Structures are given as structure tokens and as C-alpha cells.
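[job 0412] stage=fold_complex status=start
inputs:
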Amino acid sequence: MALLQRVAETHRQTVDFILDGQPCQALVGDTVLTAVLIQRDRLRIEEFNGAPRAGFCLMGACQDCWMLTEDGTRLRACTSFVVAGMRLVSV
Amino acid sequence: MNNLSPVIVGAGPAGIRAAATLIAAGLKPVVVDEAIKAGGQIYRQPPDGFTRPKSSLYGFESRKADRLHHLFEAIRPQIDYRPGTLVWNAGADHLDLMASDGAAASLGFSHLLLATGATDRVQPFDGWLTPGVFTLGAAQIALKFQGSILGPRIAFAGTGPLLYLVAYQYAKAGADVVGVFDTARFADKLAALPGLLHGIGHLAKGMYYVAWLRAHGVPMYGGIVPLRVEGEGRVQGFAWQGGGRTKRVDCDAVAFGLGLRSETQLADLLGCRFAYDDLNRAWLPERSLSGRTSLAHVYLAGDGAGIAGADAAELAGERAALALLEDAGHVADRRRIALLESRLKRIAKFRHGLERAFPLPPADWGGAALADDLVLCRCEAITAGSLRQAARDLGVTELNRLKALTRIGMGRCQGRICGAAATAILAAELQCAPKAVGRLRGQAPVKPLPVVTLGREDAA
Amino acid sequence: MSARRYDTAILGGGIVGASAALNLARSGLSVVLLERGFCGAGASGVNYGGVRRQGRPPEQIPLSLRAHAIWARLQDHIGIDGEYIRSGHLKLARSETEMASLLAYRDRIAGLGLKLELVSGNTLRDRFPMLGSAVVGASYCADDGHANPRLVSPAFARAAAKAGAEIREQTEVTAVERTGNGFMLQAGGDEIRAGYLLNCAGPGAGLATQAFGETVPLSSGYPCLGVTEPLPPLFAFNLGVEGGGVYARQVARGNVVFGGGKGYALDDRNCRPDMKALMQTLQDGTALLPALRQTHVIRFWSGVEAYMPDRNPVLGPSATTPGLLHGFGFSGAGFQIGPAAGAVLADLVRDGRTATPIEAFSIQRFTRTRQMAPAKSYS
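[job 0412] stage=fold_complex status=done
writing structure:
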């Protein structure tokens, strides 16, 4: 189940992106974190204990929302905006 | 006087006021801000294409937000504005930047005014790593900046003015607020009344949120201790202790915070002298009421130098800019300075009242009470027990030594999140005051920096 | 207050001083170690963490081999493994000239007990597929490795304390003088007397050399170090480059520790890494290990290291003062040999001599002649 629910600003244009190989839609102006947590309840698997993580501070301070793209690039999900065609990995 | 190159870091209330003040004196400051739009965290503006009115985004603060945003638009043509830009290192006469396109650059300054703001103060507790646990600030950003809520069933826990404000904003936005769990007691708030009367407007707003939440049937608890977040893989419930009993509630998210903590990394890298501040329970760069620091040409304003709120930040931004101008040989407007300083002093009194109303939990809650297997460091999974072991077996008596031997504070966030907990644990272990264990020193880069930024051929 | 008397007083709680203290205490001698900060928190604790013999000049190899044997039983010696692993040290050549230089080095140290394997061409690509195309060849020393200096160096001091040495941290030595039967020191408000004085104070070694009329061309150096976020395993070996420059190792947790270039001083105890040097290091480093391109650096740091112009330490008896022994100036390469340097100093105190050849490190080399060999980097 998703961790985030939209309650406003739903009129925006859609953005198509890929999450874990599946086509997904976000809205223009969504951060990567929003785009993913509208679909999922995690952003990544933490390196040490293999536990899921979904971010924490949303203001670029805690560094807990790093996500990988399929090509291995790392994005800080709360401060990066989703871009059409992005291929994100949360597993 | 024309060869001044003042740089302001941060475009929140303090930074914007400071910039406007320098412009009024005929200077053209550089304003570097990590956000893509000006306003800081409190008056954060949503991305382009969002249409909610300011009254909906900022509530009682919408007029102030509007005024500051307009001020910024008015001065924007007269500043060298660098949005989306991280200042990742500070030297004696220059800053190292990473621009929004990832390019590295060096920016020299004659005078530097730091208005770097604050983030949530947190203390780890059982289950706080579970997806669905966020800071209070995060909960607010989701709503204000993204039109989304965490939840839909959400518990608000911790203490501080933000606790009731965000709970109110969520309930109004349609979230199912399962409760507001305040670690402070109602009695604390009554005791603090004389201090709070210095900020009567704020007090009225706070009382309004509480009354609104009560009228809408949101359960509110005081003097609680958060016990744990329940759920494997995501939040399923929140358990707390209150009135001598343990209780729990089902929920999908927990928003948690214990007030704010200042972002002081750049002042640290510059070599500003720090002192322990009892009110903030933190080491802060020393500054006078004028915003001057221990370093000539370096000035501080706003929550980045001690938490005092947005109104104080505007005043302090202007005051620090006037100090900068005076030090650069401009004629000082004594009456204006006196007015700003008297207002800042009044806010400081209110701030003392707030601290009494929303006292941080006792030090042992974040210290001795934490289980050995509790992970304190979200970045590198360092446990409370490993810190205690270092204190006991390795004779550690100082925070940077603890860092060297356990890695606490060495991860991606450089101790922003775990620093307070590490301090509490070491102090509890040594049975000394938190200030006695010293201050976690920061290192560049202030935030993780892509190797490609540094390795780029066109890097400055 | 009456002065306490010890067989030996040691100035400096870095890896050299602490190792000397450990060896002396285990020999049953009374030792006091005086450290102005915390033991192993200076250069010994903040250095890169390379534990390699490869690349050292021939005169250092015997000392380095002695250290190699100590590292082999580190856990027994100091009580922790210190994250020490014999990962191999791979020294890269980016040109045929550099490859020739690696070959020449192998010939120069032939017969000294170091096994080096030169690899290039397809063998290099097959064995080390993570290397970028900028690499043309490499010299591999299988038994070299790396360790965590933040853990290892303080552990030497703890082991010394456990063996009976008196370790006084946060104790500044303000005066040293020779007395009739030894030395007298002022330290942290106390008077301390000792038969022998070991000067292992790194960048602060000038206090004792000046006090006893020995001028040495001691200077300070500031390495530029950094570390990435934790990454999946990329490479096991400790990486260096012929001629100096980039060095890197990946720790078990996944972080890649790297360094190269020089930082600068803020004052005599504090320094900062130089960002331009680090940018150059990362530019060069990503050419050697392309996978690093997608990663983030989470921390940079530096530390004050004691340098000698010929990059060899000063190790052995004073030229002016009986009972005074020096062990400083390891010139950015003391971590691996530090434990052996301390053992040599202990030999000299206990036995009056050491089986390890140290003539090349005599302080007299600076008074015999002013002609220095040009500084050469051995990284």
C-alpha cells in the first residue's frame, strides 16, 4: 500500500516513468519521493540490514531517501523531480 | 566600498531580509539557496503549476509569506541569485558550490552572511526506521509542497509548536489523525504562560489549533513517552506510555519531532567559535545580537544560528546585514538597529517561554533508556549498544573520539540525525552533562556530493 | 609535588609511541606515555589506512617486513583485528614509462623478500576487470593490504595500558631537559623523570629536537582524503599509482576510502583538505575505477603528518643526547611500519641495540651533509 495520498493539486499533467520495471504515472511537479510513495511503501532497500526505507525528513537533510535508477545513478528522492522516462528501482 | 562581494547563504526569511537590506545600501549580494524557490522551509513555495492559494498553504502565516515572496520578487533583479545550489564547503574567503546542473564552482566573498535554517530535532526510538515514520517537517512538506498526505491514518508525536500545527493542517486536509501525542505536559504549558505572553499572537494561534483539533474529535495526550512504532516493512501502529499505562493505536504513518535544530555546518567549517547553548540544548556558533560571529566578515541570522522562528529570522537577517554594512564602512542607522534589537530581545523571551511549554524529554529518554540493539544511525546502522560499549571498553569520553571508534556521525548525514542521540547516550554512560562530551565536528562536503561533480573537466 | 620516575617516557601516543610503550611494558619496564590529545587521533588515526610494503625504498624494506610480521598477529598483539585484511596492493601504471618504472622498482628490491607480480595486457583485464582503460599494467603485492587506522592506532595505546604502561592523554608536555641520570619533563602540571626519552611526537617532534640542540628539516604535510557512501563490492585490493597520486581502498562496509594531493594548514594543529586537489584525485580516480563515477563522496578530511625531505623517518638514537631516541617523520607512510618502529625503539631501550637495520634513518644524516636526495613519492 502507498505511503502517500494525494489530497490536492491533482489537476497537473501526468508524467510516465518506470518503477521496478513497471510503467507508472506521476504528476508534473512530483518529487521522485512523491512519485514512488504514491505507488509503494518504500524507496529502497538499506545496504546493511536489507530493510526497506522510505525517507524521513523530506528536506534534503537526513540523506535517507537515496534511490537507484536502472543505470546505477543515485538520486536523493526528496529533492529530485520526477522526469518522463525515468527508470527507478526500489528493490 | 564598491568592491564588496557579499554572499548570503539561504533564501528564507533571514536571507531575503538580509539581501533586501544590502540592496537598499547599494550592494549587489549573491544569494545562494539550496531550494529551487525562495522562502525557506516555513514559506516554502510549491513547484510551478501548483494552484492552491497562499491562504491554504500557509494559514495564519499567509500574509507574511506573501509579503516575503513579493519582497523577494522585487529584489530578485538586483541580486545574483543561485537557486538549487548546494554550498558544500566553506573556506576563509570562498565557498565551494554545486549548481543545480551538478557543476562545481568556487565563489569568493568579502563578507558572508549565513542564514542556513533548521531541520527537525529527533530522538530515535523503537521502530523509528520503519517506512512511514517521518519528521513533523516532512509531514508538512508533503502537504505544502506536494499536495499529498502521509497516512491516511497518522499519529503525530513529539513536542513543539509544529506538533499541533501540522496535526491541524493534516486533519483539515482530510487525513485521519489518530492522535496528537505530546511528550510535554499540559502543566508545562501553563507554567510557561508568563513567557508565552511575550508572543501573544503565537499563543493565540497555538490555542486555536488545539481547540480546533479538540472540537473535531482528535485525541490529544500530554506527558507521553513514545514506546515503539509497530509494523514490519511499514507502519501499522504506534504504542506509547501515558498515565502509567501502555497503550497503542492503529495507524499507517507517524510524524515525529522534538522542535528544531540549527544547520551549523558551514559556520563549523569556517572555524567560527561555538558555545553550548542550554536553551537549544546544542552547540551553536557564537554570535552577538547584531549577528556578528567570532570571525570578522562572517555573520549569522535566522534559525541556522539558534531556533527563534520566522519573525525573529526576518529581524535578525536585517540586523546582521546592517552589521555587515557598518563593518564595511557604511553609516549605521542607530535607531533602526535599536528597534530591531529590542524586537529580537522580546522574541527571545517568548522563545524561553516556548522552551518551557514544550520542554525536550528528559535527557535519559534519549540516553540510558534506549535499548542496546536500537539503530541510532539511519545512514550506517550504528546501534546504541555499540556506543555504550565504546564508552565502557574503550574509555571514550568525547564525542569525536566516539565517532572515530564507532562511525557514529560518519554517514551520509554527518550526524544531523543521530548527533543528539549519540550525545545523550555518551553523557548518560559517563553520568555527565551533554555539553561535557563535546561537539561533533563536521567535515566537507556538507551533504553527499556526486563524484562526477568533483571530477568534471569544467570544474572550477 | 614530587616527581615520579619511570624507566622510559614517551612523547606522543601515535602508533609509533604506543607500539614502543606496548613493547617496553611487556618487557617489564616502567613506561609513561604523554599525549597532548587522544592516542591515535593524530596522523596515525586519520591516515588513509594503507598497509603496504610495495613502493617503499629498499632501506625501509627490512623494517617493513618486521612490521609485516606484527600485522600478521595483530589481533593477539593489540586485542582487535582493526579491519586489517591482506587484500593485496596493486600499483598501477598508466603509461609504458610508468610500467618500466614498476619493473625497475621490482629489480631494485629483488632479494629483499618482497614478492611482486607484474601484470599487463589481457591478464590484467581478466584479473582486474574493474580497472579503466587508462591502466596499462600493474605491480601486485599479494600480502599487502589495508586496515582501519581509527581503530588500530588507539588500540595500540590501549594494549600498552593493559600491559602496564601509564598512558596520559590530554597532557601537554611543556618542557624537557636532561638531568644527571636521565630526563625531567613538565607535563600537565606534573614533573616526570625518566631514564630514557622517546621522541615519537610526529609533527610536534621539534620540541625535543630543539631542546637538545638537534636541528632537523622537519615539516608538516596534509594529505587529502575522502570516503564515498557504502557501495557494493567493487575491488578488494589496496590501489596505488606509480609516481604517486591517487590511492584507494574499499572497506568491508562498502565505503571507498581514497586520497591524493595535498591539503593546507589552518594553524599548527588544524588543516583542511584542498578541494582542487580532491577534484583532480577524483578525475584521475574515476579513470582508474570507472564505477566510482556514479557514487557520492560523503566526507573529506585531512590530518597533520610529519615529513622529512628524503621521505625517510628519523629512527634511532639522538646525535647529541644519551638516552634520547627519536621515532618521527614518517612522511605520510608510517602506518604500516609504525608498529615495527616502536618495536625497534623498545629494542634500543631494553638491549641498547636492534637487529633491524636503521642506519639510513639516523638523525645524523642531516648533519653529515646538507645535500638531500630529491623528494620522491612512495604511495
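[job 0412] summary: Confidence is low (pLDDT under 50) at residues 369-379 of chain C.
[job 0412] exit 0
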